[in-house]
């Protein structure tokens, strides 16, 4: 972190020397000696404040990716940035926001496949190459817009690597928003090391990755993301992933939705060997005030059922298990029955977010609704205001699919987790929560499995909601204080965000 801040200080004085060479000739960097030199520096600072950086934000069109980008952009807007937020197709229409510094635009999604994103991720990524032409036109339009400052930076999702080539074409910088954990990034950073040790693909190996610098102790290959467990036909030799990762070496910044104190060795190693400006600025939702959070909630795929907050008000403190498997995961009939049976045996009150498309068939959903309909200790809703739920005093634990957004929100609110990963890097996130942060329990039958049973659900729910869960709650509260402190003045994420902001202001002067 210090390295990032110090490198900016050098850059700032380099700009000062460039713009005011006469007054800077006798100065050492960072040590102004005369009043006129200090005046010159003040003028540069004033110029940086008066020329607003203009960022074009381009998120990947999924629920786990759009809100973090929005939280970050709302914060940047409040710090004087001009933001153009580019949506894809019908996800969100182009619109004004009531803030002249923040506007939405959209481009067509005709080239993208239909169907569930979770089942077509690589197909989706490949198809997004077809958006490049429209994206370039948008960049050209913004560069020629006399009503707004010229673009300073393209801020794109980690999945959209080709935006780097567009940024190069227009002579501007690109920053990447890394929406997952840094531990996943560390695995990608050391592709060649995994490959030379016969662990690419990992194939569920129990071998501990103690040969990978920065990897947490006892972290085994079986906890690597699904994308590294098997070699898929669409990406022989993992070439596409390697190419995406190599592009990020040249990014001006990689902004990470994590916290230095949560993944210290991983972040430091990636900064050392991959990109020195790979910096954590999270949790991103903590950057938003209440009004901004409600604005971000407007971009959720389903309307929030806020009546659940009234229901929570009637429950005892720490008595409710909150259950949500995110916006993409699905549950088979058998798994849904196992979870429901385990909950029933545990005797715990629960609030379950059961999306309309969560279950493989409508009969399963109807059975769950019928089971809890007359039970005042249970509530099933299609979508929840998750942050407000996690912050509620009656919520004692969170049964989660281990999506990274959900984990960062649980960490910040101090809620212990029951982890049932479903796909992607969720098994990696689960290992972090359970084995290294020690603020959760596995809800799966086997360590590296994704299946659960009624017996396992009953056992872990009783553990976390009962007297045995006090130590977990204590640890979660301690970590919550650390995580929330990171975004406050003096915190690690705060310092990194300030370094990024000042660098963008410097670039806007050019």
Automatic annotation (TrEMBL):
Q: Which InterPro entries match?
A: UDP_glucos_trans (IPR002213), UDP_glycos_trans_CS (IPR035595)
What's the superkingdom here? Eukaryota
Q: Name one GO cellular component term.
A: cytoplasm
Q: Which of UniProt's keywords are assigned here?
A: Glycosyltransferase, Signal, Transferase
Annotated EC: 2.4.1.-
The keyword Magnesium is annotated on this UniProt entry = no
Instruction: Name the PANTHER family on file.
Output: GLUCOSYL/GLUCURONOSYL TRANSFERASES (PTHR11926), UDP-GLYCOSYLTRANSFERASE 85A1-RELATED (PTHR11926:SF774)
What SUPFAM superfamilies does the record tag this protein with? Answer: UDP-Glycosyltransferase/glycogen phosphorylase (SSF53756)
Molecular function per GO? quercetin 3-O-glucosyltransferase activity; quercetin 7-O-glucosyltransferase activity
**Family statement:** Belongs to the UDP-glycosyltransferase family.
State the signal peptide span: 1-17
Protein name, per record: Glycosyltransferase
């Amino acid at each position: 972190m210090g390295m990032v801040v110090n490198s900016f200080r050098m850059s700032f004085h380099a700009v000062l020397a460039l713009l005011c060479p006469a007054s800077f000739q006798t100065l050492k960097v960072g040590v102004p000696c005369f009043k006129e030199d200090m005046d010159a520096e003040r003028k540069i600072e004033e110029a940086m404040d008066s020329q607003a950086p203009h960022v074009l934000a381009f998120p990947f069109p999924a629920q786990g990716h759009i809100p973090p980008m929005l939280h970050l952009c709302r914060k940047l807007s409040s710090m004087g940035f001009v933001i153009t937020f580019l949506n894809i197709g019908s996800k969100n229409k182009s619109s004004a926001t009531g803030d002249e510094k923040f506007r939405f635009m959209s481009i067509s999604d005709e080239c993208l496949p239909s169907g569930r994103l979770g089942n077509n991720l690589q197909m989706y990524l490949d198809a997004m190459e077809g958006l490049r032409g429209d994206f370039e036109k948008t960049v050209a339009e913004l560069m020629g817009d006399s009503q707004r400052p010229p673009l300073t930076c393209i801020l794109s999702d980690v999945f959209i690597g080709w935006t780097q080539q567009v940024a190069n074409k227009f002579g501007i910088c690109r920053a990447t928003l890394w929406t997952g954990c840094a531990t996943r990034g560390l695995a990608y950073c050391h592709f060649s090391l995994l490959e030379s040790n016969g662990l690419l693909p990992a194939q569920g190996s129990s071998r501990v990755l103690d040969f990978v610098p920065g990897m947490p102790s006892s972290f085994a290959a079986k906890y690597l993301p699904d994308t590294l467990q098997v070699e898929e036909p669409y990406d022989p030799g993992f070439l596409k992933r390697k190419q995406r990762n190599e592009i990020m070496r040249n990014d001006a910044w990689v902004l990470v939705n994590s916290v230095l104190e949560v993944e210290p060795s991983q972040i430091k190693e990636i900064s050392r060997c991959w990109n020195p400006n790979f910096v954590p600025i999270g949790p991103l939702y903590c950057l938003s005030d209440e009004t901004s959070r409600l604005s971000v909630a407007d971009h959720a795929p389903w309307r929030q059922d806020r009546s659940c907050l009234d229901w929570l008000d009637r429950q005892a403190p720490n008595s409710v298990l909150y259950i949500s498997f995110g916006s993409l995961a699905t549950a088979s009939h058998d798994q849904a029955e196992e979870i429901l049976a385990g909950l029933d045996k545990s005797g715990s009150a629960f609030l379950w977010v059961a999306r309309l498309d969560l279950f493989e068939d409508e009969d399963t959903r109807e059975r769950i609704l019928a089971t809890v309909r007359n039970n005042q200790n249970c509530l099933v809703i299609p979508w929840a205001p998750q942050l407000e739920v996690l912050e509620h005093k009656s919520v004692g634990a969170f049964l989660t699919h281990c999506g990274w957004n959900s984990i960062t929100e649980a960490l910040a609110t101090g809620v212990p987790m029951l982890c049932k990963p479903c796909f992607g890097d969720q098994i990696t996130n689960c290992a972090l929560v359970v084995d290294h942060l020690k603020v959760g329990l596995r809800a799966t039958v086997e360590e590296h499995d994704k299946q659960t049973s009624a017996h396992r659900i009953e056992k872990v729910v009783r553990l976390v909601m009962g007297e045995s869960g006090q130590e977990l709650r204590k640890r979660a509260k301690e970590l919550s204080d650390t995580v929330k402190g990171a975004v406050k003045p003096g915190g690690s994420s705060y310092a990194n965000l300030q370094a990024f902001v000042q660098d963008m202001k410097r670039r806007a002067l050019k």
